[in-house]
């Protein structure tokens, strides 16, 4: 069964600090891995998408890494801001429409 | 939220009633999807449609029905047969489903509460 596990479930950080979220998956065959940001009560918004050949991709203060050999990905948030408070969802695709979603990591940034 | 709209944002229904959730997109996307989100769980696929007048069941289609009469519209009906309908429902769309890994764009969601 295709699975996506995210850790930690939640974390609290002070404004200006960095944090790293983890994603482990067992999805096979692998097509791509995406990170989404979801604000409370809103739909997810794409941050990055990486294929097998890509091992890092940045979007502003967000940097995602991918190790397809160990089936692990991470999302690093640099110099966190209050607006970074949200749920971050790791999504792995075995085909173009069939996506496997992680349960998300809830990040709370405090002033 | 791109060019996808969902209405209403909040919906309350009594148990035993059918309810239809609206999803409209103006992105000219071929494919549309319905997901259900529950606390502590990842999104689960209910139904998807790759083209007008065609749709397929996802992982949790029981108790739900859809139609795709127009390219821009993909309404979801939650029937009385759905045992646990209270959830956050998300609609998404993508340019197409085959040939490349197309991005899925999500709507703002509808929170359905059934009592």
Tell me what you see in this structure.
The complex is a heterodimer of chains A (111) and B (115). The mean pLDDT of chain A is 93. Chain A contains no helices and 11 strands. In chain A, the strands form 2 sheets. In chain A, strands 2, 4, 5, 9, 10 and 11 form a 6-stranded mixed beta sheet that branches. Chain A is mainly beta and 111 residues long. In chain B, strands 2, 4, 5, 6, 9, 10 and 11 form a 7-stranded mixed beta sheet that branches.
Tell me the major beta sheet of chain B. 7 strands, mixed
Oligomer: heterodimer
- Overall 3D geometry of chain B? globular
Order of helices and strands of chain A: EEEEEEEEEEE
Helicity level of chain A: under 10%
**Could you give a short account of the major beta sheet of chain A?**
6 strands, mixed
User: Tell me, what's the shape of chain A?
Assistant: globular
Number of strands of chain B: 11
Strand residue content of chain B: over 45%
Which regions of chain B contain 5 or more consecutive residues with pLDDT less than 50?
none
Low-pLDDT segments of chain A: none
Order of helices and strands of chain B: EEEEEEEEEEE
Distance between the ends of chain A: 41 Å
Question: What is the secondary structure topology, with strand pairs?
Answer:
The complex is a heterodimer of chains A (111) and B (115).
Chain A (H helix, E strand, L loop, with lengths): L3 E4 L2 E5 L4 E7 L6 E7 L6 E7 L4 E4 L2 E6 L4 E6 L8 E8 L5 E3 L3 E6 L1
Parallel strand pairs in A: 2-11
Antiparallel strand pairs in A: 1-3, 3-8, 4-5, 4-9, 6-7, 7-8, 9-10, 9-11
Chain B lengths: L3 E4 L2 E4 L5 E7 L5 E7 L6 E8 L2 E4 L6 E3 L9 E3 L8 E8 L10 E2 L3 E5 L1
């Amino acid at each position: 069964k295709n699975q996506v596990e995210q850790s930690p479930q939640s974390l609290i950080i002070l404004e200006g600090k960095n944090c790293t979220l983890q994603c482990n998956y067992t999805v096979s065959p692998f097509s791509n891995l995406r990170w989404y940001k979801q604000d409370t009560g809103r739909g997810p918004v794409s941050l990055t998408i990486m294929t097998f050949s890509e091992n890092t991709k940045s979007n502003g203060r967000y940097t995602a890494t991918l190790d397809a050999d160990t089936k692990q990905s991470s999302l690093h948030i640099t110099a966190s801001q209050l607006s970074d408070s949200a749920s971050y969802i790791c999504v792995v695709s075995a085909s173009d429409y069939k996506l496997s979603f992680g349960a998300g990591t809830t990040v709370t940034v405090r002033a | 939220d791109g060019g996808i709209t969902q209405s209403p944002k909040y919906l309350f229904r009594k148990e035993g009633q059918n309810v239809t959730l609206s999803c409209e997109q103006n992105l000219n996307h071929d494919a549309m999807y319905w997901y259900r989100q529950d606390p502590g769980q990842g999104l689960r696929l209910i139904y998807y449609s790759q083209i007008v007048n065609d749709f397929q069941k996802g992982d949790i289609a029981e108790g739900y029905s859809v139609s795709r009469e127009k390219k821009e519209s993909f309404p979801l009906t939650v029937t009385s047969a759905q045992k646990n309908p209270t959830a956050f429902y998300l609609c998404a769309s993508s340019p197409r489903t085959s040939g490349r890994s197309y991005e899925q764009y999500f709507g703002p969601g509808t929170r359905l509460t059934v009592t």
